[in-house]
Recover the amino acids of this structure.
C-alpha cells in the first residue's frame, strides 16, 4: 500500500487502486509521507532496544498459543498424561496442563520453550538497552521521560517473568511463591493481610495461580503494550539519537530512510530474533518441570535457581547477617527482609531519577541528540560501573551455594566475601572506570595532537630514531574532538545575598562530577602542537 | 523535578569567560570553547563492491532469493515434522524429536526471511544516508500561546476556576468514588478468617502421631536410630481433602535422633524430646522454604533457599544466614504402643515472621 502512493495515477494497477481506496477512507498517505522517508540513525548498539521489542512480540505470539492449552486452575487431579514417571501423581490442573503442553501436544514443548527463552532474552535485552542509554547519556533532555518509561517497563518485565514462572505450579515455582509470601509477611503493618489477600487465604491456597494468570496474560501485557506504544511514539517525536560523526549535528538526524532500508533491516531483524529463539528452543531445554514435580511445601532440592533476572533480589536476601529481626512495641520488625526491600527500592529509585539528577547538576537545558562516548563523561560512566558492580554482586550472591560447592569454598567464606564486595566492589569499580575513561580521553588527545602511531621508524639526519606519526584527516579527528566538557559550579550568592543548602549541594555534586575533566583539543592547541614538530 | 528554571542565573560556572557565546537556551556549566573544531560535514560517499561490480551485485541478489526460498523449505519441513514425528507413545525420546525437528524447521523458516531481508537491505538496496532536520521538541511560541488560550477559554466558559464550589465538590467526588472498588477487593480472602489466628496454629495436637512424609506411616521411637533424620507430617494429613498443602506448609517437621549427650536442651524444654529424639519445624523462619538438608555429623540443618543454618544440638538456633529465629520445636513423647506423638501444637507460630507475631 505504501509503495503505491508514489506511483503515477495514470497507471491504474491493482495496488494503486487499493491504496487509493484505503487512503480515501483513512488519510494514511499523510502518515506515510511524513514517516516513510525519515532518516533513522544506525549503530549496532541501537539494536538492543529492537531485540527487546522483537522478543516481546515473540512472547505475545507464543504466549497466546499457550493460553489455548494452559488451564490456570489449582484444583487437584491425578496426572494421566504421557509422562510415565508422574502417572498417577496428584497435582494441580495448572501443572497437569503444562505437562500436557509439553508431552501431549505436538510442538507444544517447542512453543513453551520458545516463550520461556524469549522471556529471558526480553529482560536481558531491556537491561542491555538501558545500559546503552545510560552510558551514552541518551537519557538527557528531551528524553528523560522516555528513560522513566523504559525503566518502568524493565520492572514490569520482571513482574511478567515472575508471574509466568509461577504459573505451571511445579516445585520450583511454588517455592518461589513461598519466598514471596515470606517476604510480604515481613512487611510491617500490612504484610500479614497483604499475603492473606493475595493468596486468598493461607499459603499456598487454591487461588494464586488464577490470579497471577490474570496479571500475566491481561493486566501486565496491556500495560506493557501501552508503555511500548508511548515509548516508540516518543522515539518518533524526539527522533533517534546518533553518535558524533562528520556531518551529524544536534540539528539533524542522519541515517538510512525508514523506507526501504531501515524497514527491511528492522523487519529482517525481527525474523532473526524470532529465528534465533526458535533455534534455541528446539535445541535447549528450559524449565523441565517434569523433573521437579508438583508443588509440595516439604521437599526442595539444593542448587535450584530462579530465572536470572530475579537473582539480584534473591541475592540481596542472602547477604543479610543473622539476627536482623526484633520485637519492638509488641510487633515483629523483620529487618532481614525490610533492608533488602528498601535497599533495592532505593537502588531502583536512584536509577529511575538519575537523568533528573544529572540535569540538575549540569544545569544544561539544551536538547542533546548526539550521544556521548562513555569515556567523555567519566563520572557518569564511573557511577554506571559502580551500579553495575553492585547489581552483579547481588546477582552472584544468588548463586552463593553453587559458587561454594563448585570452587570448594565454605558457605560462610563466600557470603562474607560477597558482603564485603557489595560495598567495596562499587567503589573500586567507580575509581577504575573513572581512571580508564580519563586515560582514554588523554589518549584521544594525543592522537588528535600527534596523529596515530604508524609503527614506522625512521632515522633522522641527526642520527636519532623516531616513529612516524600518521596525522588524522578532519573526519577522523571530528569523532575525537566533538564533545563538550562541563566545569565545576562556583557558588554565588543569590539575589538576596544568600547561599542556600541546595546550591551548596549542587556545587558539591558538580565538583564531584566535573573536577577531573579532559577538554577536547581545540584548533589552537593543534596548531601549537604542529609548530612544536617543525 | 529539580529543574528550576532560574537556577542558571544564580549559579554561574566557575569560568564564565564564554558568557557571550551562551545561546538562548541555558547551557548550564557546559564549557563552550571558542576555537573548537568545526564539523567538517559529510565525508564523500564510498560505493560498496556491489555498487561497482555487477557480478557481485548479481550474486548478492541470488543470495537474497535463495534465502527466501530456504525459508519456504523450512516452513514445509516444520509441517512435515509435525506429522512425521508424532508423540503418541509414552516415550520421552519422541517428544525430543518432535521438538527438535519442528523447531529446526521453524528456525530455518524465520532465519531465512531474516537473513534475506537484512542482506537485501545491506548489499542490494541503495545505501545512501539521508539527513533530516531536527526541530525543537517543545511546540513553538504560537502553538504554546494557542494552547494556553484554549485552556483559558475553556476555563472562562465552564467557570472551572470561578465556580469553586462546583469544582471542589467534583474533585471530592472523583477522589471518593474509587473507594468502594477498593473495598470490594477485601473479597480476595475469606471474610470470616483471620490470618493471625490461622498462622498461630497447625494440625498438631496432643496425641497426634508423627508419620512419614508422604506415606503417612506412623513412626516408632525404636525405629529412629541415632544420626538418622525423618521427614514427618502429622497423622491424617494425607487423608485431608481440603487444605492439605496449607496444613502441610505449616505442619511439616524434621525428626532427628542425636546422642543425648550431644543434645544441649533448654531447661524448660527438657521434656520436649524423647531419648535424644527431637522434632523441629521444617519451615524456615526466614521466608519459609523447607529446611530440608541435614548434615549428620555436625547436627546442622541447612535451608537451601538462602543458606540459613540451624544447630539441632543447640535447640536449632541460627548459626549462619539471614534467618533470625530458631526453628520452633514440636514437643513430643511416646504413646503406649511406642509410637512418637506430639505433646501439643507448636508453642509459637511456625515459618516466616509476620508483623503481629510476638
Ligand atoms: C513480557 C511478557 C512475558 C514474560 C516475561 C513471560 C514469561 C513467562 C514465563 C517465564 C513462563 C513460564 C513458562 C514455563 O513454563 O517455563 C510463562 C508462562 C506462560 N505465559 Fe508468559 N510471559 C509474558 C507474556 C505473556 C503473554 C502476553 C501471554 C498471553 C497472551 C502469556 C502466556 C503464558 C501462559 C499461558 C503461560 C503458562 C504456560 C506454561 O507455563 O507453559 N505470557 N510466561
Ligand atoms: S527461607 Fe530459609 S534461608 Fe531463606
Amino acid at each position: 500500500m505504501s509503495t503505491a502512493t508514489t506511483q503515477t495515477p495514470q497507471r491504474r494497477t491493482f495496488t494503486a487502486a487499493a491504496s487509493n481506496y484505503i487512503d480515501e477512507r483513512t488519510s494514511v498517505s499523510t502518515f506515510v509521507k511524513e514517516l516513510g522517508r525519515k532518516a533513522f540513525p544506525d549503530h549496532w548498539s541501537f539494536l538492543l532496544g529492537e531485540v527487546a521489542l522483537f522478543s516481546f512480540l515473540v512472547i505475545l505470539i507464543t504466549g497466546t498459543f499457550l493460553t489455548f492449552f494452559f488451564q490456570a486452575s489449582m484444583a487437584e487431579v491425578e496426572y494421566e498424561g504421557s509422562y510415565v514417571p508422574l502417572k498417577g501423581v496428584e497435582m494441580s490442573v495448572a501443572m497437569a496442563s503444562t505437562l500436557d503442553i509439553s508431552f501431549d501436544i505436538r510442538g507444544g514443548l517447542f512453543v513453551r520453550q520458545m516463550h520461556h527463552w524469549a522471556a529471558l532474552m526480553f529482560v536481558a535485552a531491556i537491561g542491555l538497552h538501558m545500559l546503552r542509554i545510560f552510558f551514552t547519556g541518551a537519557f538527557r533532555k528531551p528524553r528523560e521521560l522516555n528513560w522513566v518509561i523504559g525503566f518502568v517497563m524493565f520492572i514490569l518485565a520482571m513482574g511478567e517473568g515472575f508471574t509466568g514462572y509461577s504459573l505451571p505450579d511445579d516445585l520450583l515455582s511454588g517455592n518461589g511463591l513461598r519466598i514471596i509470601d515470606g517476604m510480604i509477611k515481613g512487611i510491617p503493618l500490612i504484610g500479614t493481610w497483604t499475603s492473606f489477600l493475595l493468596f486468598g487465604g493461607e499459603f499456598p491456597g487454591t487461588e494464586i495461580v488464577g490470579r497471577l494468570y490474570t496479571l500475566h496474560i491481561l493486566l501486565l501485557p496491556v500495560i506493557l503494550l501501552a508503555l511500548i506504544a508511548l515509548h516508540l511514539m516518543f522515539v518518533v517525536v524526539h527522533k533517534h539519537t546518533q553518535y558524533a560523526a562528520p556531518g551529524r549535528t544536534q540539528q539533524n538526524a542522519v541515517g538510512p530512510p525508514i523506507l526501504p532500508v531501515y524497514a527491511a533491516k528492522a523487519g529482517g531483524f525481527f525474523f532473526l530474533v524470532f529465528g534465533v529463539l526458535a533455534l534455541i528452543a528446539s535445541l535447549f531445554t528450559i524449565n523441565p518441570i517434569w523433573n521437579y514435580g508438583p508443588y509440595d511445601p516439604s521437599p526442595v532440592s539444593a542448587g535450584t535457581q530462579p530465572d536470572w533476572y530475579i537473582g539480584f533480589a534473591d541475592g540481596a536476601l542472602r547477604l543479610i547477617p543473622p539476627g536482623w529481626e526484633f520485637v519492638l512495641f509488641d510487633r515483629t520488625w523483620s529487618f532481614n527482609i525490610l533492608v533488602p526491600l528498601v535497599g533495592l527500592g532505593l537502588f531502583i529509585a536512584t536509577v529511575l531519577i538519575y537523568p533528573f539528577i544529572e540535569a540538575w547538576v549540569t544545569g544544561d537545558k539544551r536538547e542533546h541528540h548526539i550521544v556521548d562516548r562513555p569515556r567523555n563523561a567519566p563520572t557518569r560512566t564511573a557511577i554506571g560501573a559502580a551500579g553495575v558492580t553492585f547489581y552483579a554482586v547481588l546477582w552472584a550472591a544468588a548463586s552463593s551455594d553453587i559458587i561454594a560447592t563448585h570452587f570448594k569454598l565454605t558457605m560462610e567464606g563466600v557470603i562474607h566475601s560477597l558482603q564485603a564486595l557489595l560495598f567495596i566492589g562499587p567503589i573500586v569499580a567507580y575509581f577504575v572506570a573513572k581512571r580508564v575513561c580519563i586515560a582514554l580521553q588523554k589518549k584521544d588527545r594525543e592522537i588528535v595532537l600527534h596523529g596515530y602511531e604508524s609503527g614506522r621508524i625512521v632515522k633522522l639526519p641527526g642520527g636519532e630514531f623516531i616513529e612516524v606519526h600518521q596525522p588524522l584527516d578532519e573526519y577522523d579527528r571530528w569523532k575525537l574532538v566533538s564533545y563538550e566538557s562541563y566545569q565545576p559550579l562556583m557558588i554565588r550568592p543569590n539575589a538576596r545575598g544568600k547561599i542556600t543548602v541546595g546550591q551548596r549541594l549542587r556545587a558539591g555534586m558538580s565538583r564531584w562530577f566535573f573536577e577531573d575533566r579532559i577538554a577536547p583539543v581545540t584548533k589552537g592547541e593543534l596548531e601549537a602542537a604542529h609548530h612544536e614538530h617543525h | 523535578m529539580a529543574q528550576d528554571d532560574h537556577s542558571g542565573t544564580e549559579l554561574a560556572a566557575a569560568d564564565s569567560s564564554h558568557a557571550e557565546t551562551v545561546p538562548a537556551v541555558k547551557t548550564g556549566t557546559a564549557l563552550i570553547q571558542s576555537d573548537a573544531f568545526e564539523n567538517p560535514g559529510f565525508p564523500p560517499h564510498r560505493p560498496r563492491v556491489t555498487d561497482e561490480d555487477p557480478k557481485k551485485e548479481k550474486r548478492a541478489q541470488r543470495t537474497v532469493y535463495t534465502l527466501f526460498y530456504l525459508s519456504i523449505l523450512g516452513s514445509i519441513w516444520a509441517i512435515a515434522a509435525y506429522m512425521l514425528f508424532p508423540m503418541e507413545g509414552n516415550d520421552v525420546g519422541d517428544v525430543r524429536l518432535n521438538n527438535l525437528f519442528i523447531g529446526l524447521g521453524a528456525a530455518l523458516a524465520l532465519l531465512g526471511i531474516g537473513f534475506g531481508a537484512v542482506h537485501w537491505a545491506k548489499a542490494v538496496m541503495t545505501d545512501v544516508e539521508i539527513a533530516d532536520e531536527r526541530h525543537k521538541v517543545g511546540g513553538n511560541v504560537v502553538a504554546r500561546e494557542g494552547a494556553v488560550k484554549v485552556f483559558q477559554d475553556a476555563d472562562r466558559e465552564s467557570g472551572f476556576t470561578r465556580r469553586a464550589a462546583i469544582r471542589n465538590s467534583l474533585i471530592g467526588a472523583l477522589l471518593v468514588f474509587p473507594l468502594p472498588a477498593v473495598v470490594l477487593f477485601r473479597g480476595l480472602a475469606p471474610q470470616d478468617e483471620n490470618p493471625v489466628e490461622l498462622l498461630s496454629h497447625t494440625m498438631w495436637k496432643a496425641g497426634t502421631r508423627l508419620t512419614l512424609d508422604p506415606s503417612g506411616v506412623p513412626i516408632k521411637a525404636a525405629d529412629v536410630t541415632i544420626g538418622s533424620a525423618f521427614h514427618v507430617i502429622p497423622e491424617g494429613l494425607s487423608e485431608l481433602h481440603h487444605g492439605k498443602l496449607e496444613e502441610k506448609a505449616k505442619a511439616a517437621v524434621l525428626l532427628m535422633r542425636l546422642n543425648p549427650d550431644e543434645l544441649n536442651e533448654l531447661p524448660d524444654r527438657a521434656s520436649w524430646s524423647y531419648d535424644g529424639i527431637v522434632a523441629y519445624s521444617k519451615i524456615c523462619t526466614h521466608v519459609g522454604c523447607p529446611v530440608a538438608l541435614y548434615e549428620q555429623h555436625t547436627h546442622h540443618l541447612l535451608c537451601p533457599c538462602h543458606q540459613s543454618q540451624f544447630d539441632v544440638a543447640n535447640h536449632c538456633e541460627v548459626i549462619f544466614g539471614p534467618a533470625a529465629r530458631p526453628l520452633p520445636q514440636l514437643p513430643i513423647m511416646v504413646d503406649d504402643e511406642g509410637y512418637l506423638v506430639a505433646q501439643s501444637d507448636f508453642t509459637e507460630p511456625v515459618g516466616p515472621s509476620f508483623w503481629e507475631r510476638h
